[in-house]
Every structure is written in C-alpha cells, then in structure tokens.
Amino acid sequence: MHAFLALLRKDLVLHFSNRRAVLMSVAAPILIAAFFGSLFGGSGNKPAHVPVAITDLDRSDLSQKLVAALRADPSLAVSELPADEAQAQVRAGKLRAAIELPKGFATQAGRAIFGGQNKPEVGLVYDPSQAMALPLVRGLLTQHAMALVAQQTFGANSPVLKDAREQVAADTQLPAAQRQDLLQMFDSINRVQAQTAAPAASASASAALSGPSFSPPFSTRETEASARPELHYNSYAHSFAGMGVQFILMMGVDIGVGLLLLRRQGLWLRLRAAPLSRATLLGSRMASCALIALLVFAAIYAVAIAAFGVRVEGSWLGFVAVLLAFSALTSSFGLLIAALGKTPEATRGLAILATLLMVMLGGAWVPSFVFPEWLQTLSMFVPTRWAVDGLDAMTWRAQGLQAALMPVAVMLGFTLLFGALALARFKWEE
Question: Could you tell me the end-to-end alpha-carbon distance of the chain, in angstroms, rounded to an integer?
C-alpha cells in the first residue's frame, strides 16, 4: 500500500506541476459551455437579427406598411433590394432569405383573409444550408401581414369588408353554419362602425380575428437559392467542409506537438549545430505540414465526391486555391500553438480550446445566424469562417473564382501572422 500511495502521489505531482496544462484543461470546458449557453438561452440574450431582403412590387400603402413592420421587428435585419440582387446575395450566403411581394398584394390579401381561393403568392427564396431561418421569416411575415390586413379590412368604411361579405355569401364551399356566423360577424361590425369611432371598430375586429375561421391572406412560393435551377443543396458539401477544417487543424496541432517532443529529446539542438538557420528548420516543418494537410483534405474530398455526391459546382481553380490557403494556415497554426503551449502537455490543452472555438465560430457546427449580433461580427475575424465559406462557395453555392479571392487572401494573411508569431515565440530549449 505504501508503494501504491507513493506512485499515486508522484502522478498527481507531475500532473499539477504543469500549471499551463492544468489551466487549459479547466478553461476549455468552461469557455465552451459558456459559448453554447449564451447561444441557447443562457442569460436571456435576444436572437440575433436575421439578414433578409424584401422586394416590394406592389408599392401600395399596405405593402409599404408591411415592409416598415418587418424592418422594425427586432428578429430581422431587413434591406430593400431588387429581386435579382436579393436572390444573388442569398445564393452567396450574405442573406438568409429574400421576400418578394407581388403586384396586387394589397387588393388580393384583403379579400383572401376569410379563406378565399385567389390569394396573392409571396416569393420566398432561402439559403438551404441554413433553412432554420425559413420558419422564422415565414412566421413573422404572416404575423405582420395578418395584423395589417385585418386593420385595413376592418377599418371604417372599408370596401374590402363589403367585398369580403359578398365573397363569403357566394362561397358555397363553406359550411352553412360557418357562413352564417361570418355573415353575422360582418353585420355586427357594420353596426359597431356606425355607432363608434374607428379605434373601437379596429379593436372589435382584432378580437374577431382570434377565431379559427381565418387563414393567412397569402400563399408562399418557397425556393432554394441556387446559381442554376438544376442544382440542389447537398448537406454533405457543408459537412465535409466543416469537419475537414476541424480535423485538419487538429492534425496540424499534432505535428506541432511532435515538434515539441523532438525538442525535448534534444534533436533540435543537434540540428542547430549544423549551418541551418532557425527559419529554415521551422519553415521546412511548416512546409511538410502544409503538404500533408493538402493531401489529407484532397483525400477527404475525393471520398465526398465519390461516395456522397459532393460536387465542385463553382470554380475548380478557386477550390484548389482555398485548399492551398487553408493548408498553409494549418501549418502556421500548429506551429503557433506549439510555440505558445511550450510543452506537449500544455499544448494539447491549448489546442483543444483554440481549435474547438475556431471551428464553432467558423460556423462548422452551429449556423452563424443563430449567434448574437456581436458574435457574428467577431466570427469574421476567425480564419475558419473564411475557410468554410470559401469551400461552400466553390461547391454547392456554385460561385465563380471571384468568390474565392477574399477567403484566400484572409487565410494567407492569417498564415503570415501566425508564422511570424511562431518564429518569434518558439524556444529551442524546453
């Protein structure tokens, strides 16, 4: 038992003597838990503004009020754009959805609120990779449209109310009891409007709208955003991009940890005795890591193309450029983590924290539109966000070479920054 306790004490002392490794093992779960808690409830943060565009082809008083109501909604960030430009931005991933209000929307919506057949058709083009935003946009559009159409319909001296009564009276598909109830409601509203002011009439109408006899005063035509009509969203394309980025970053960290183990064995001191500069030794390590990362990512995408139907629908040149830039980024990131971690044990803890945070902020796990607004802005300063966006643009989004230029430039900039910091901080002796 004495020997057992001595060995136990030895292991505890060795583990806790590396303060950096202990700190990372505690900080990583705390920060990641705080990250997810802030997204899904946490301290009661309001949902981030979902960027959408709206095109008003009706230009009526009702449609303008609807646009203003959507603009004022805290869950949306609405911009008015022409239909073609709005759909192009949805295809590029800059917007989650584009709404198109058709001509005649106001006239048809007022008559269709009682279940009429000739409902206006509102176009909804949405980003299929983040389709969780579609129910939110559809629900808010219905909510605001119902409120405004009801206000217009039940206002004093409203011609829509008269037309709606005539439409209900002539609709033979409605059950007789339901038709009679609706006609009595119209007659009651007319009597109230004759006796009271318009605000009271609007209040009576709003109370009547809570009944189950009404339906949304429009229908929707929902379309996936695609550069070509024959293309359909392949969820595997985004999954392989996100998971490839994550595990190749981890591979780069493993190479950095291997570098520290070689240093612990004294190999780097022996190499320094040769006429080789510091930049040559570390640069060769970065180059080999980048080449390995490129080959691994190419193998991952080869499987994705052969077995899961992933296709490079955009520019092949842009796709290769994104892979090359990310491979270079991986090598400099692994070396930087090794330089900051200083020991293999601490580097592993730091690597877990840094890699997981970069992957999460990059949108590989959780769609970035669910982030708080400040976090969406912060994610633009994370290189993995540009890597995932660049790979998405070259695969299922079917974007041209120009869509790869900015992600490549940003990743190369981070590569130079990480490499310079790593060269400055790397210690040749543990």
Answer: 35
Q: What is the rounded CA–CA span in Å between residue 385 and residue 22?
A: 29
Are 340 and 260 in contact by the 8 Å Cβ rule? The answer is no
Mean pLDDT by runs of 10 across the 430 residues of the chain is 77 72 64 60 57 93 92 91 92 90 86 69 88 85 86 62 74 81 77 56 42 64 72 81 89 81 74 70 83 92 92 95 96 86 75 83 72 79 93 91 96 94 76
Distance CA(194)–CA(88), nearest Å, equals: 50
User: What is the predicted pLDDT for the residue at 84?
Assistant: 92
Closest CA to 344 of 407, 255, 275, 279: 255
Kind plus residue range of the DSSP H or E element containing 137: helix 133-153
For position 410, what pLDDT does the model report? 97
Q: Which residues contact 21 (CB under 8 A, 6 or more apart)?
A: 15, 343, 345, 346, 348, 349
Backbone phi and psi for residue 181, each to the nearest 5 degrees, phi listed first: -60, -40
CA distances from 154 to 72, 184, 397 (A): 23, 14, 45
Q: Cβ distance 127 to 120 under 8 Å?
A: no
Nearest to 367 by CA among 25, 132, 123, 118: 132
Distance CA 224, CA 96 (A): 11
Helices (H) and strands (E) in the chain, counts: 17, 5
- Rounded to two decimals, the pTM is 0.71
| 3-state SS string for 225-293 | CCCCCCCCCCHHHHHHHHHHHHHHHHHHHHHHHHHHHHHHCCHHHHHHCCCCCHHHHHHHHHHHHHHHH
Residue 210, pLDDT score: 42
